[in-house]
Amino acid sequence: MEALALFQRLGLALALGLLIGLERGWQMRERAEGGRLAGLRTFGLTGLMGGVWAVLAEDFGAPALGLGFLALAAVVILAHLQMVRAGDEPDYGITSVVALLLTFAFGALAVTGYMAVAAAGAVITALLLGLKPVLHGWLRRLTEPELFAALKLLLISVVILPVLPNQGMGPWGALNPYTLWWMVVLIAGISFVGYFAIKLIGPHRGVPLTGLAGGLASSTATTLSFSRMGRREPGLRRLLAAGVAVSAATMFPRIVLEAAVVNPSVVTVLGPVMATMTALGFAAAGFLWWQSGEGDAPGDMALKNPFEIGPALQFGVLLAAIMLLAEGARVWLGDAGVYLLAAVSGLTDVDAITLSLSRMARGDLETEVAAHAIILAAAVNTLVKGGLVVAIAGRGMGGPVAAAFGVVLAGGLATVVAL
Fold it and tell me: Where is the MgtC/SapB/SrpB/YhiD N-terminal domain (predicted)?
């Protein structure tokens, strides 16, 4: 390694130690000199030491680096125990001990060439150390059902989802276990996010924000989650209707973005129609949100379990049935009718048909036909979401949603005719 590069890496190792030491020193600034395990200088020197031992390991082998780490760990642990026995250390925690050992490791990483990883790790470490009051505040507010809800969500998403086969199965290969379970995870996740958004910032702001975020992933899943909430909370139905409208309106620019990535020429026809429907959708959502008023969103509303796997599984079964029927219709009736295929696809999903038709428009399919078929799929999908709201939450929530969707679809149709 060249001398200049070595000095740069050792300098980074020192800087990373000083960064972590700055946070530790500031947190313990009220203690007397010598009354803390490590401060700014000790952390800086520890980072530099990690770098020096990494340099030595290049000549003496990797065990030398491990020996240096073990020696530091022994000294730091003994010092911590001695301070606790002497009463100089009122905190029995080992946060500073772990931070020192991490600082050594970051210094070694910086010298061995993982400079970006070392810098990111040091910044995250300093941030976590500084966020102690905030993190502990969250823990105090976290209830047992909420904790187990988070763990269950991680179980179905991180553990179960990756091991499912991502391929078509069953009749016509229409059923994809990975896709179906992903929808189950998505619905449960949106309910989870909505629960905490409502709890932390209140229903009046939490519902629209959750609808916006949910619409970026799946407006259908968001509609289902909000509809079930509306069935339980009659006083929030108009506010939840606004959330559904926000989610549905977010779908339209997502469609345009997907088409633009595959075939920008489709956007020339698709863009104006989707822009009209987006504007009308957000306007209708804003009106419903304004009508709901603060009184419609009490802060002490009875929040239910944040993790509801039952409804998500029910929707997964329903989605599987619709996917099977849609593929059956395509096989029985053939692929000649692009509009029929788009309408059938819109029953479950608009993303797949948008990408497929945009790609086909680069070949023999006319751009205008592809764009109009995508619009038809979006319209059918919007009608399906309206039907879900009416079926699950009743007319109290379904009426405002139907009115909003009617305005959106009428505006889209008028734009198509005008073009």
Answer: 10-137
Quick one: pLDDT at residue 103? 92
pLDDT score at 296: 44
Question: CB 354: neighbour CB atoms within 10 A?
Answer: 28
Q: Are 256 and 222 in contact (CB under 8 A)?
A: no
Cα(401)–Cα(385) distance, rounded to whole angstroms? 9
List Cβ neighbours of 208 (8 Å cut-off, separation of 6 or more): 242, 243, 246, 285, 289
- Secondary structure element (H or E) that encloses residue 60, with its range: helix 40-60
Q: Where are the domains of the chain?
A: 3-138, 145-418
Identify whether the C-beta of residue 211 lies closer than 8 Å to the C-beta of residue 243.
Answer: yes
DSSP state of 297: S
Residue 388 CB partners (closer than 8 Å, separation 6+): 220, 223, 224, 227
Whole-number Å distance between alpha carbons of 408 and 402? 10
Residue-wise pLDDT for 54-92, tens only, equals: 988 888 888 888 888 898 888 888 887 877 776 655 556
| Residue 274 to residue 350: CA distance in whole angstroms | 13
Classified as helix, coil or strand, 147 is helix
Q: What residues does 175 pair with on adjacent strands? A: 169
User: Given this model, what pLDDT does residue 325 score?
Assistant: 62
Residue numbers of the chain with a pLDDT score lower than 50? 295-303, 335
Both tokens assigned to 225: 């989650």
